[in-house]
Amino acid sequence: MIPEFILFWATAAVCVVGALGVVFAPNVVHAVLSLLVVLFGIAVGFFALGSPMLAAMQIIIYAGAVVVMFLFVVMLLDITEVLPSLGGARGVLAVLSVLGAVALTFAIVAAVTSGGLPAQADAPGGDAATVGWGLYTDHVILLLLAAILLTAAADGVVGLTQRRESR
């Protein structure tokens, strides 16, 4: 009971600090990296709840693909404006981030060594093969619509970043 409690609150603290970093980061790249911290915290939460498949999907899809896409968009748009600085609050956020990461590490180690993590849920359809089969059979139209939407978004970003030459 206690290791799960500590793991939950440590993960929640890391997610909140990361979310504050997303909102208050003076640099856009730092905001995207703070978003990465939040997404990894959510993945740890999924893993602690006994759903390693969702944790892996969270890391691969969101922390991997979406954050990389955000970084590409930031680089393509060439954002040179720096947001107003937080002053002394940056140090507080840095200290809270370090404390949250240390607390999360201790909570994970305590939960793993005590055997306090719950067993994987035995819900039907929770493995990778079932998710993949459902994605490419029952939900193939939604998958194709998402692919078209992402392609259109990437095309729009490229179109917006093209420099128009004056004649």
Helix fraction by DSSP (H/I, runs of at least 4): over 70%
SS field, number of helical segments:
6
The value of Rg in angstroms is: 20 Å
Number of domains: 2
Q: Indicate the CATH architecture of the largest domain.
A: Up-down Bundle
CATH class of the largest domain: Mainly Alpha
SS elements, strand count: 0
Gross morphology: flat
Question: CATH H level of the largest domain: which superfamily?
Answer: NADH-ubiquinone/plastoquinone oxidoreductase chain 6, subunit NuoJ
Q: Which H/E pattern describes the elements?
A: HHHHHH
What percent strand?
A: under 5%
Mean pLDDT: 74
Gap between N and C termini: 71 Å
Largest sheet: none
Flag low-confidence runs: none
Q: Would you tell me which CATH topology of the largest domain applies?
A: Four Helix Bundle (Hemerythrin (Met), subunit A)
User: Structural class of the secondary elements?
Assistant: mainly alpha
Q: What features would you describe in this structure?
A:
The chain is mainly α and 167 residues long. Helix content is 77%, strand content 0%. It has helices at residues 2-24, 28-48, 52-77, 89-114, 128-137, 140-161. It is flat.
